[in-house]
Specification:
The chain is an alpha/beta fold. The protein has two domains: about 325 residues, Adenylosuccinate Synthetase, Chain A, domain 1, CATH 3.40.440; about 90 residues, Adenylosuccinate Synthetase, subunit A, domain 2 (Orthogonal Bundle), CATH 1.10.300.10. The protein is about 30% helix and about 20% strand. Strand 3 and strand 4 form a beta hairpin. The chain binds guanosine-5'-diphosphate.
């Protein structure tokens, strides 16, 4: 049984912690989209480890990790992450498989992104400036360089020369020497070689011998290139459709979909955020929730829980259940608002609009729930939550139209409630932590 984990909001929902929590029940964790712009923070054995490119399953020594064709790979970022893990005593060894079809982020993609953002001026998107967007542009423009090209020196030389010459026409400087880029890529290819292979074949064979996978999404549904608040989106398919295209699997390989949503809402960068709050209310959420980007350190915009957005994410992804994170951040608030619909002009709408001008003009319809004074922080059983916090979760569940299976009450792996008899509890019961370390097929 394979489960996909997707962000049900604008990213940073705490997917890293939930993936880390569920990973011991699976023997493979696979990433299917994005690049090293993701910032999954995991606290384990008192250490804070932020993973940008590798699946967070890499922290578990018995788990194989896959980077699918839908991911764009910056070889230097990959090596830096492998070294960072080594400094924590974690060896990647032969537990990593990178798709030979994944596209590469080339050294000048970052400067192209900075240039594009500067040209957009006040209409900038607020990207992480890691070259991810330009790498996806090259992929769709059919001039990208793929991992398998690293092992075809003549083809690589031709591709890199054409790309660097195009870059040199765009950027007025002394010009980049394509040979330097080429040599660096050849060297990177050699270093990556042990980890490169056919991901679809690996996964299909693994499933046929009973192994199970967790598909780890990065960013969130509202940042998806197709389904998000375009153009203020990421460049990849961050919703569940990305699993099939980004790993080369059929839809029947996904047996369950868990959406991750914060108990409130945040967003990094530009674009509409209907439940956004400002001033002291925003500062309170930002400081208590430590809402600063894991990749960029940028302060995140904060707002109340938006059930219109999550209902939309539930439809786009076919969510079976929700994991609600950061409930503890709301501890001590006298009242907690929840957005049930949007007021647009004279109408109240229940569905997320595609037109950004319409979305920007929407005002949230807020339902205010009583807060709770006893802390939820660190609670590990549903019954340990104050009554008002349980009422909040149950109202959130009702207006989102998806059952809440998991509640996170702190950043530690153990500060988590898996509700008894919930969808996720049933998944996990079917997949007890495997006693064996399955060999790679
Ligand atoms: P991701 O990109 O979706 O994995 O999210 P991030 O890792 O960027 O953001 C989640 C942050 O919130 C991390 O620092 C987590 O350690 C932290 N976190 C996750 N769950 C909880 C929770 O329930 N409570 C609190 N206080 N922090 C949490």
């Amino acid at each position: 049984m394979n489960i996909a984990i997707v962000g049900a909001q604008w990213g940073d929902e705490g997917k890293g912690k939930i993936v880390d929590l569920l990973t011991p029940h699976f023997s493979i964790v696979a990433r299917y989209q994005g690049g090293h712009n993701a910032g999954h923070t995991v606290f384990t054995e008192g250490r804070r480890i932020v993973l940008h490119l590798l699946p967070s399953g890499i922290l578990h020594p018995e788990v194989d990790c896959v980077v699918g064709n839908g991911v764009v790979v910056d070889p230097q970022a990959l090596f830096a992450e492998i070294e960072m893990l080594r400094s924590h005593g974690i060896e990647v060894g032969n537990r990593l498989l990178i798709s030979e079809k994944a596209h590469l982020i080339l050294p000048y993609h970052r400067e192209l992104e900075l240039l594009a953002e500067a040209r957009r001026g006040e209409h900038r998107i607020g990207t992480t400036s890691r070259g991810i967007g330009p790498a996806y542009e090259d992929k769709v423009g059919r001039r990208g360089v793929r991992v398998c090209d690293l092992y075809d020196p003549d083809g690589l030389a031709e591709g890199v020369r054409e790309n660097v010459e195009a870059r040199n026409r765009l950027i007025a400087d002394a010009g980049l020497d394509w040979r330097a880029v080429y040599d660096a890529l050849l060297a990177a290819g050699e270093r990556m070689r042990p980890w490169v292979g056919d991901v679809t074949l690996f996964l299909t064979r693994a499933f046929s011998v009973g192994r199970s996978a967790l598909f780890e999404g990065a960013q969130g549904t509202l940042l998806d290139i197709d389904h998000g608040t375009y153009p203020f989106v990421t460049s990849s398919s961050a919703s569940v459709g990305g699993v099939c295209t980004g790993l080369g699997l059929g839809p029947r390989a996904v047996h369950g979909v868990l959406g991750i949503a914060k108990a409130y809402t945040t967003r990094v960068g530009e674009g509409p955020l209907p439940t956004e709050v400002h001033g002291a209310e925003a500062d309170r959420l930002r400081e208590t929730g430590q809402e600063f980007g894991a990749s960029t350190g940028r302060p995140r915009r904060c707002g109340w829980y938006d059930a219109v957005a999550v209902r939309y994410a539930a439809r786009v992804n076919g969510l079976d259940a929700l994991a609600v994170t950061k409930l503890d951040v709301l501890d001590g608030l006298p009242q907690v608002p929840l957005c049930t619909g949007y007021r647009c002009g004279g109408d109240v709408i229940a569905d997320f609009p595609a037109d950004l001008r319409q979305l920007a003009a929407c005002k949230p319809v807020l339902d205010t729930m009583p807060g709770w004074s006893a802390p939820t922080r660190g609670a590990r059983r549903y019954g340990d939550l104050p009554q008002e916090a349980r009422d909040y979760i149950e109202r959130l569940e009702e207006i989102s139209g998806v059952p809440v299976s998991i509640i996170s009450t702190g950043s530690d792996r153990d500060d988590t409630i898996v509700r008894e008899d919930s969808v996720a509890a049933r998944w996990l019961a079917r997949f007890p932590i495997p006693p064996y370390s399955a060999p790679r097929t």
